[in-house]
Specification:
Strand 2 and strand 3 form a beta hairpin. The chain is an alpha+beta fold and about 350 residues long. The strands form 3 sheets. The protein has a 7-stranded mixed sheet, with helices on both faces. Strands 1-6-4-5 form a 4-stranded mixed sheet. The protein is built from 10 helices and 13 strands. The protein is globular and about 65 Å long.
Length: about 350
């Protein structure tokens, strides 16, 4: 095997623990994620925590790896940081583990890692430890990434079990963008559209809301299962009724068109930079004003409220004056969206 091929693609030797693996880690990962904790090269990162801490983990296997608005690297950082943010936790430290298929292009790996480093800056979190495995051709689909994260909880009142009667439900922006963007990329749809994934780090806007003393009862990023999944989880966990108005839910024309073409519902499509809040009624307008001022939340909208009907269900009011249950999504509409 020639030296040129080794330098351009990932080889099994890059996962063997020897010189090649050391070079890959130092030249790509350490260079992109450089910080004193990672640079110490210990078997475990030495961290200091003060107070309640949030801890989360997620694995990312999106196909395709690169899509309009992001890539698997941006997705891995934003997804884990957002899980912390949704618990009112300031993201601090992340781990990052790669499973890379033999033959994966080195340049693509560099692009993914650079994307991760760029996204990290938006929250101030740092990757302080990680792992790299290389598997034979055919044993993975290019690259899989696992990221775990910890953060300092600065708002302890946020929980799926904390919804209260008359709480207002707010969505941060238009829904379904990530699922639709992945569908377009996967199917190679040649349509005149500027549709991009909403993949983004949410901590900056969450930090603004917490700093403004908004009374947040529940908060969740609407990833797999979309808006429908989040609202149903809340209704069930808090044993409340939730009513939302379809006409108030922002949906882009591109997403609506794809849903019509494929028979999907925008409420079920995945998001990666859109979140849902349940806030006290008396601070709903303040919340909306803050959100519309910061961080791509210009389309933030009040879409419904928590009712006194303790049925653990979500009711959708349609534009035609009828109502129906908004059920939990079923089946696998878009595999490998994250």
């Amino acid at each position: 095997m020639s030296t040129v091929n080794v330098s351009k693609t990932v080889q099994l030797s890059h996962g063997g623990g020897g010189k090649e693996m050391n070079r890959l880690i130092k030249d790509i990962f350490f260079k992109a994620f450089d910080n004193p904790i990672l640079r110490s090269e210990e078997d475990s990162a030495r961290l200091h925590f003060n107070g309640d801490t949030a801890f989360t983990t997620d694995s990312f296997t999106v196909a395709p790896l690169f899509f309009a608005g992001g890539d698997i690297g941006k997705l891995a950082i934003a997804g884990t940081v957002n899980d912390l943010a949704m618990m009112g936790a300031e993201p601090q430290f992340l781990s990052s583990s790669f499973i890379i298929e033999e033959g994966f292009p080195i340049e693509d790996l560099k692009t993914i890692v650079a994307s991760m480093a760029t996204e990290l800056k938006k929250s101030g979190a740092r990757i302080v430890c990680g792992d790299t495995k290389v598997v034979p051709r055919g044993c993975a689909d290019g690259v899989f990434i696992n990221t775990s994260g910890v953060g300092r909880i600065i708002n302890n009142g946020i929980s799926v079990k904390n919804l209260k009667q008359d709480d207002v439900i707010i969505v941060s922006r238009d829904i379904g963008r990530h699922g639709a963007a992945i569908l377009m990329a996967r199917e190679g749809l040649a349509v005149e559209s500027e549709l991009t994934s909403d993949c983004a780090t949410l901590w900056p806007i969450v930090e603004q809301l917490i700093a403004s003393n908004v009374e947040i009862h529940a908060m969740r990023d609407a990833t797999r299962g979309g808006l429908s999944a989040v609202l149903n989880e809340w209704a069930s966990a808090s044993q409340v009724g939730i009513t939302v108005n379809e006409s108030e839910i922002p949906v882009s024309q591109e997403v609506a068109g794809l849903c019509e073409l494929y028979g999907f519902e925008s409420f079920d499509l995945a998001n990666e930079g859109t979140f849902i809040l349940a806030v006290a009624q008396d601070c709903a307008e303040k919340t909306l004003q803050i959100m519309q001022t910061f961080c791509h939340c210009e389309q933030a909208a009040i879409i419904g409220k928590v009712t006194d009907i303790k049925i653990g269900k979500v009711i959708l009011n349609t534009p035609w004056g009828s109502s129906r249950f908004l059920d939990v999504p079923q089946g696998e509409l878009l595999p490998r969206i994250c």
